[in-house]
From TrEMBL:
InterPro entries the UniProt entry points to: Flavoprotein-like_sf, FMN_Rdtase-like_dom
Domain NADPH-dependent FMN reductase-like: 2-153
Species name: Amycolatopsis thermalba
Protein name: Flavodoxin family protein
Pfam family, one: FMN_red
Taxon lineage: Bacteria, Bacillati, Actinomycetota, Actinomycetes, Pseudonocardiales
Length: 205
């Protein structure tokens, strides 16, 4: 089993990322279940704007897309900015829009039979909105969203410390992160054993 985490932080490497820290808790849970996990920090790559899988010279999205399609599990991890996903999360979703019309050799849409979840951090409120936006988009693209396949941390309304600056709420959040990992893995295994048939994905009788 393989999982890819798209870390949509705005902080380039090697700057510490709160989003990466919480996503790593989910990754650890997946590794305990035998999953190979790779995390990609999108800000470190030249991802051209657009809605095609390859935007030409210098575009690094095709290699990232290849990692997504090599995985049964996709996790999008985003900070909260002004109550919304980061601009990099939005760009990744826009680039994955091309998957709506892309199919495998049997005609099944390429995002089908893959599961997805969301990790959100921020020292402001708005996490549920971010989760809804990202999960809604991934569902439209064709990913399967298991129940409780998300985790978030924030300090609530007003300014405050970031995830890595405090232990506030960590015990509960880590429990949720563990449940998220188990749910993603369980549904990924189920889809691997009984995938959505190509004729159903194409809407055939």
């Amino acid at each position: 089993m393989r999982a890819t985490i798209l870390n949509c932080t705005l902080k380039p490497s090697p700057e510490p990322s709160n989003t990466d820290a919480l996503a790593e808790v989910v990754a650890a849970g997946l590794r305990e279940l035998g999953t190979d996990v790779r995390s990609i920090r999108l800000v470190d790559h030249d991802i051209k704007p657009g809605v095609s899988s390859d935007m030409g010279d210098g575009d690094e999205w095709p290699r990232i897309r290849e990692e997504i399609l090599r995985s049964e599990i996709l996790i999008m991890a985003s900070p909260t900015w002004v109550g919304h996903p980061s601009s990099l999360a939005q760009r990744a979703i826009e680039r994955m829009d091309a998957m709506l019309s892309e199919t495998g050799e049997d005609g099944t849409p390429v995002a089908y039979n893959r599961v997805a979840g969301v990790v959100v951090t921020g020292n402001e409120d708005g996490a549920h909105h971010v989760i809804s936006e990202i999960n809604g988009a991934l569902g439209d693209i064709g990913f399967t969203i298991p129940g409780q396949a998300w985790v978030y941390w924030n300090m609530g309304p007003g300014p405050g410390p970031s995830y890595s600056d405090t232990d506030h709420g960590h015990q509960y959040v880590h429990q949720v992160a563990g449940l998220m990992a188990k749910n993603l893995y369980a549904v990924a295994v189920a889809l691997r054993e009984r995938p959505i048939p190509a004729e159903i994905s194409r809407g055939e009788d």
